[in-house]
Amino acid sequence: xxxxxxxxxxxxxxxxxxxxxxxxxxxxxxxxxxxxxxxxxxxxxxxxxxxxxxxxxxxxxxxxxxxxxxxxxxxxxxxxxxxxxxxxxxxxxxxxxxxxxxxxxxxxxxxxxxxxxxxxxxxxxxxxxxxxxxxxxxxxxxxxxxxxxxxxxxxxxxxxxxxxxxxxxxxxxxx
Amino acid sequence: xxxxxxxxxxxxxxxxxxxxxxxxxxxxxxxxxxxxxxxxxxxxxxxxxxxxxxxxxxxxxxxxxxxxxxxxxxxxxxxxxxxxxxxxxxxxxxxxxxxxxxxxxxxxxxxxxxxxxxxxxxxxxxxxxxxxxxxxxxxxxxxxxxxxxxxxxxxxxxxxxxxxxxxxxxxxxxx
DNA sequence: CGACACATGTAACACGTTACATGATTTG
DNA sequence: CAAATCATGTAACGTGTTACATGTGTCG
Lengths: 175, 175
Description:
homodimer, 63% helix, elongated, DNA-binding
């Protein structure tokens, strides 16, 4: 629902045409979620189908979209309700749990591979955060904050898994 | 790909029929990801279509599935490659960033609503973790670890957002 | 002129999800 | 006997994603 509702949010603040929504969405996410141009229009079609947005000019060239009253309600609902916990569907968690459940022989390697990758990402995010200007690139900085905190949590979880499974990490990739 | 690959993982450790896969998957995830029965068979059809699994008995009653050589490769690929970072698509992150980008007036409320909800979850997870037996319910305990670490990271991020946006949290829902 | 941003759209697909229909077997 | 569990499947749908086709305007 992220793209859908994001479009709703922009259109509630001001009408826009498809391409504008694309730019807005990508800027909002600090460029971390690039959209395929086509996706903009499939998403708009679905919003229109559900009566949440309407097109202003029927012209072929630049259709201007605006939110309906129903759309405003849907947006308010989005903002009002806290996002549900989707961690139970997280691919990494599932992968590790399934590996445990099947008695996967390379358990230790799976955990270490992931930990290395996540720590490398962590370094890269941290580097980028130092280079970023919080005033000029607020979305990107907020995104980096999220990315970093998530990655840290992931590393901690992987270490916890190693402990609980009584696996000895090599420690070689710790820094 | 989680369900798909989880099925592959079980079938690589031993052949099974559809219902068995369902039970296995739900036990592996500590019951945190319940499957609709139908989903098992749609997933198996897709795996079969892609040549990753095959059905043993053509009987109507209890078809036994096993993994193919190609399926074993696919599984190895899954285990070998670290899971990509999907945090950039996280609904909460997007929601907050979009709210910031549109100058949403109720920014503070959105953040606080979410923080309250997440902290409540956190409490509930912590309570359940205390009640759980790590030896008898390892999957569920590992899942709870993940849930807790994620929730903690989420709370920290929300607080960081408040700071960066120079919003004063009420602090009333801190405990 | 050529590259790039602007601008719109269709068709097809991926995975996950639900509702629904059906029946056998086990257990209280 | 009734309820729960075991067991299989289909049809339809949701969001997100890609590949593809098409064309205008602008700037170096």
